[in-house]
Amino acid sequence: MAQRGDTIELAILGLLHESPMHGYELRKRLNLMLGWGRILSYGSLYPALKKMLRQSWIEETIPDVPAVTLRPRIVYQLTPAGHAEFERLMGEVGPATWEDDNFGIRFAFFSRTEAETRLRVLEGRRTRLQERLDRVQQQLAMTQAEMDQYAAELSRHGVESVEREVRWLSDLINAERKDGAP
């Protein structure tokens, strides 16, 4: 399973791959990317940025603009090493790439991923979800009689959500294959 810090670093590299940004803009975009209910604090963002600075994946610049506040805005941008690390990470395929948090971040940057890699990640995610779905349906069949109506409804909702994502992934996989991926 991918660690949250690794997922945040991938997201930062991907966003900075698009353009340089200051910390506030990065946090705002990351929160949009991470989705509902998951807010990235500055206490998580800045340690990740400091680590990435130490690894020379990013660099800081202070633009020459009149300071409205006492503290200048620091702009972060990718270095050549950061570009290479982003490309390396986006080329990876394996169990961590289709876990819940990591998959969403990777998917957001799929346009920068080779078709074969996209297809393998999509297929891995679909397989992972299908396994999860099969397990939950088996457990539901064994315990449904013991559940109250609200617990049963919540379970049904969870099953339908996973089924919907599996269909969505199947459609994406079919589109990838139609567009020429192996």
Question: What this model shows, in words?
Answer:
- By secondary structure, the chain is mainly alpha-helical.
- A three-stranded antiparallel sheet has the order 1-3-2.
- Helix 1 crosses helix 2, helix 1 crosses helix 3 and helix 6 runs antiparallel to helix 7.
- The relative contact order is 0.12.
- The mean pLDDT is 85.
CATH fold group of the largest domain: Arc Repressor Mutant, subunit A
Rg for CA atoms: 20 Å
CATH architecture label name of the largest domain: Orthogonal Bundle
Separate helix tally = 7
* Contiguous uncertain segments of 5+ residues: none
Q: Describe the global form.
A: globular
The main sheet orders its strands as: 1-3-2
Strand-residue proportion: 5-15%
CATH superfamily of the largest domain: Winged helix-like DNA-binding domain superfamily/Winged helix DNA-binding domain
- What is the tally of beta strands? 3
Category by helix and strand content: mainly alpha
Tally the structural domains: 2
Mean pLDDT, all residues:
85
Task: Produce a short descriptive summary.
The protein has 182 residues and is mostly helical. The protein is built from 7 helices and 3 strands, in the order αβααββαααα. The model has no long low-confidence stretch (mean pLDDT 85).
